[in-house]
Specification:
2 copies of one chain form a homodimer.
Chain A (H helix, E strand, L loop, with lengths): L1 E4 L2 H10 L2 E8 L2 E8 L1 E3 L2 E6 L3 H8 L2 E9 L5 E12 L7 H11 L25 E16 L14
Chain lengths: 161, 161
């Protein structure tokens, strides 16, 4: 097995293929991490949530970190981390287009409402004021990939992410 | 589908059954989240890592958050969050017993060294100074479970974790 750094292109591809990840936010030096459904489009990750702690914390401090990974085979995996900034897609004309875009990306996913909240009623969530749509504007991306086989080039011993 | 809060006993059982989770730490209001291997014992989560960003950040700010989850069935899942404090099991006589305990919990896991670092050499990791053993002293635990079926009691709409 060997571990290599992923390229930005590979990281974006992994984000685009991901339906699920973990989002960390922080308040007063206390981190908080939760699973989220997500969809990638044009340097943003789109998601939604019930009101609650993570929305409260991201409103107060928009610096967030999202982690996604993929396991394939016995010892092969890819893990990517995206640092970004929380942007709430409020239910106002200003964000109408982005909310509808988020809805179009997220609504046809199996179990797409989990674990973002309770199963919505007959009204689509985009019209449900108890759901909050948001996106993360991506800034710095890092990723590592573990592959079976011989190590081609020795990686530095220091962890890079 | 309905969602319920998990009891502390259920959360501890989920932590004890988990081999893998996500750890979030924070520096200067910037969160960071990474996958870790872990093992639960007596109100602590044990793990190890190569030197790097998360160790640097946890040394500077020991407040961490660990998230584990389990999916079973189409829409059923459990997710638990543990807030805790980072404690480094330094390679000194003071922490010898805890390091050996961590080793005993972690060493027989399939792929237990992933993604904590590169594959170790013939020396066991407990003797490898490039690996850092640590544990998280657990403080507050929260957990939610989604179950198929009718909602028995309506949960409050506000997200609890």
């Amino acid at each position: 097995m060997f571990i290599r750094e992923m390229t930005r292109r590979e990281i974006v591809d992994l984000l685009a293929a991901s339906r699920f990840g973990r989002l960390a936010c922080t308040k007063d030096n206390q981190p908080y991490v939760v699973p989220i459904n997500l969809a990638y489009a044009e340097d943003h990750l789109y998601s939604f949530s019930m009101p609650g702690q993570k929305i409260d914390w991201m409103r107060a401090n928009p610096q967030v970190c999202v982690q996604v990974d993929e396991f394939s085979g016995h010892r092969e995996w890819r893990s990517a981390i995206a640092y970004g900034v929380y942007e709430e897609l409020t239910d106002t004309p200003q964000w109408k287009r982005e909310r509808e875009h988020a809805w179009s990306l997220l609504h046809d996913r199996p179990n797409w409402w989990e674990p973002g909240g309770l199963k919505p009623g007959p009204q689509p969530v985009v019209r449900d004021p108890t759901h909050i749509f948001y996106r993360v504007a991506l800034k710095t991306l890092t990723g590592r990939q573990a592959l079976e086989g011989e190590e081609i080039s020795r990686r530095p011993a220091r962890e890079k992410h």
